Amino acid sequence: MTLIDLANPTRFLSLTARVLPWLAALTAILLAVGLYQSAMAPDDYQQGATVKIMFIHVPNAWLSMFVWGVMSIASLGTLVWRHPLADVAAKAAAPIGAAFTFLALVTGSLWGRPMWGTYWEWDARLTSVLILFLMYLGLIALWRAVDDPSRAARAAAVLTLVGAINLPIIKFSVDWWNTLHQGASVIRMGGPSMDRSFLIPLLVMAVAFSLLFVTLHLAAMRNEILRRRVRSLQMMQASRVTLANEVGAT
Amino acid sequence: MTMSLGPYTSFITTSYALVAIVVLLLILWIAADYRTQKARLRELEASGITRRSGRGATDF
Lengths: 250, 60
Known about the structure:
The structure holds two protein chains of two kinds. Chain A is built from seven helices and no strands. Chain A is mainly α. Chain A has a domain at 50-177 and 194-238. Chain A starts with 8 loop residues before the first helix and ends with a helix. Chain B is mostly helical.
């Protein structure tokens, strides 16, 4: 099966039906392994046991940006290539991205209170992630506000691409400004600065959460395709009723 | 073997519990949405509305 075959929603649904159970099982196994490793990881010499929050905070924070990246590529697919599944992919990803961003904010806040002495600080990293969360909510609201999916898709695609400017701001905010948030310790020049006893569980959890996103995203895309089928059949039904009424009247 | 989380147990357990709840809600929401869309398609097919291709709306 080539990539172009997946442009056909029916073929995409068929592929999804076959792949989803395997993906879900793999996600569950990796999550179980990651959670076990996180529980068994030693305490940090400075942060104590609160370092365990990192194993869920960091994957959610990475995914909050990754999902917007996926939506940006899908938006290019909508505006440039008019790929039939592009806006389906973007629309389906938004609520999942919003959930990951919400979790990144809340777990970060719960980690910040014992380590920084505050739940919240209006610094560059925290504020830019909050803006990302609000942009997710704005996009979801936009899709719900416009009835015609193709009109909503184009407006949402433009907004998504404009919003992508926030991604490098989030990533480099800890370098550009003074913030309470620590700098990069995994994806950085010179390799990770973290001990293996923390790095391995973190990477396993990151892969597990990424697989969770792929699984949920495919399932949500399948739902969106079915929703559009419902809409087109309802429109056919409405046009038949109108036609029947017109014939009855004459 | 018991795991000691020290003086910040509540912060750690609340974080993990919140992630579990939100992920579970996402899964349940997506599963419920799937059932809703399939039920609507079946209703429409039962009322005689079919796709232009002639294939069943719930056929993959």
